[in-house]
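User: I'm designing a mutation panel for L-lactate oxidase and want to avoid disrupting the core. Could you give me a predicted structure to guide residue selection? Please restate the sequence first so the numbering is unambiguous.

Assistant: Good idea. Sequence first, for numbering, then the predicted structure tokens:
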Amino acid sequence: MEYSEVIKNARTCIGPYCKACNVCNGAVCKNTMPGPGAKGVGDLAVRNYTKWQEVRINMDTICEQKPVNTEITLFGKKFSSPFFAGPVGAVKLHYGDKYTDQEYNDILVSSCAQNGIAAFTGDGTNYQVMIEATKAISNFDGMGIPTVKPWDLGTIREKMELVKKSGAFAVAMDIDAAGLPFLQNLNPPAGSKSVEELKEIVKMAEIPFILKGIMTPKGALKAKEAGVQGIVVSNHGGRVLDQCPSTAEVLPFIVEAVGSDMKVFVDGGIRTGTDVFKALALGADAVLIARPFVTAVYGGQEEGVAAYVQKIQAELKDTMAMCGAFSLDEIQKDMIWK
């Protein structure tokens, strides 16, 4: 199944907001929420995409010809490539009635695992969402990363128990979800967390803990102080605060601040294997891609996900070969022009 066919199929069933564009750049959906769009004027999702395109590749084929290896080991697990499916929740609200969260996660988690990568799963106000997500991960030997919203500590503790039962090899929290409307004015309160609260949450997790939603070196250093094992440089796809910089713009400064003290992921507007290469050249260990995986599920289920994974892998391998990098460790900053 070709990814072009996946996109065509998705347009028939993905709901009224997402248009399953050939290039998922945030331009058509703009400030469509519910839906895949960004907050406010809606330009941050567009900026995320555009800034990756402004990073260019320095081609160099004067090198020995060798096979390209894209394998990566993270938190004791080996993966075929350094990209993962990002967390998406409340799919009925944002993408129409075709799938429940359970059906979506079952397809995504299983097909990602079968193709050598892992899926982050979403969370929501409906407690069943986390139950279903962790069940999907349990069904595939823990090969997934549940993402918990920044609820009150009591709710987080309950959800961490579900995570532990799933056998997940890591867990995440999208701390930037503090800006989502449905987290406002809850009782008990949900939202931003202090360093001390994060330390407690890291202890609750008992497995590698990834904090998603870091956009400044200062934030990265606070995450380091809290003891997290990984961060995701992310502005939540532009969905929580208007007029932020793009993730491509802030990534190098965050990598410089924390060095190799923790694993650094990045998301936001990454759409091709070439974009993955650029992110790694700027210092990321791996990337997350969210919206196109939704299109893949809606447009082809397991086949659709496989088609997208294979597309990104092929593009990454081609870019690496054309720059003289035959393993991920050989990707260097001087291989891009910025």
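For picking mutation sites, this is relevant: The chain has a mean pLDDT of 95. The longest helix spans residues 291-323.
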